[in-house]
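Z., the sequence and structure:
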Amino acid sequence: MDSSDLYYIKQQFTLGAWKSLVELSPDPGSPDYAQTRLYQARAYIALSQPLEALKVLDADDTSLSVRAVRALANYVAKNDAEKALDELRDLSVEIEEEGVDQKENGFVRVMAGTAFAREGEVEEALETLGAGSNVENLDAVALIVQIYLSINRVDLAKRECDRARKWTEDDLLLQQIEASIGLLTGKDSYSNPHTFYIEQLHNPSLSSGHLLLSRGITHLLRGELPEATSDLTEAQNSKNGVNGDALAATVVVSELAKSKANAATAWSQLQTEYPNHALVEAIAKKEAEFDQLVLNFTVPPLAILAVA
């Protein structure tokens, strides 16, 4: 069973309080020190600061977990990304050897699955994570569900969640998984995610831009535009690794609220500061496709009316 300190650290990571987590100064003499440093490294990766993650990790540590996080950080940092992916593939084979601790096995799978998913290797990610199997790893289930939701396979996401309910307690991460599914299905006017995010944000010891963003999007989906705007603005001010997504959601909210000026400002900022954001790339792709299609048509010259 985890100590109270490690439970708190896991809670911070799960709920997206990554900035608070990396600011902790763990005691090197604590039995939780190694686990804490792993969570801090993962938090830096979530904050899109993979080079800081590498600084947190002991360069001489050759444990499977540290090697997996180091490879993921190198992949995200684009430090020979293909080499990092190959290392994660090798680790995924190495953990099958006899004597490897099951927790470490599951941890490596999640690190590898994260990289494969980011690379767009969906099938490899799902296979690595054990999708559809009886592997009892809630972190893996959470990632599997996110992958299924990203490809609009809500049915398979629900199946994984239902399977997890059979062997896990009412875990915080399980509640988050259920809230994620609820955001996509819209069941009961998004009541599940709406309740979950409100409850978690009432925690006085937690500061999470991720939760604010999630609640803001829930308000958006419920048509509560002023509340959505408030949460998204606060999420941007939190500087907690969610600014790009918060700006993208602000563009949508502003358009729905018919605030063209705010939408234009947010869109311009998103394009400038986050040129690789999914929304920016999707719009650019559609614009290019439109321009290409235009070339297939000949626009007739304007008719000149003779004036008598």
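Confidence is low (pLDDT under 50) at residues 303-308. The radius of gyration is 22 Å.

Let me know what you think.
H.
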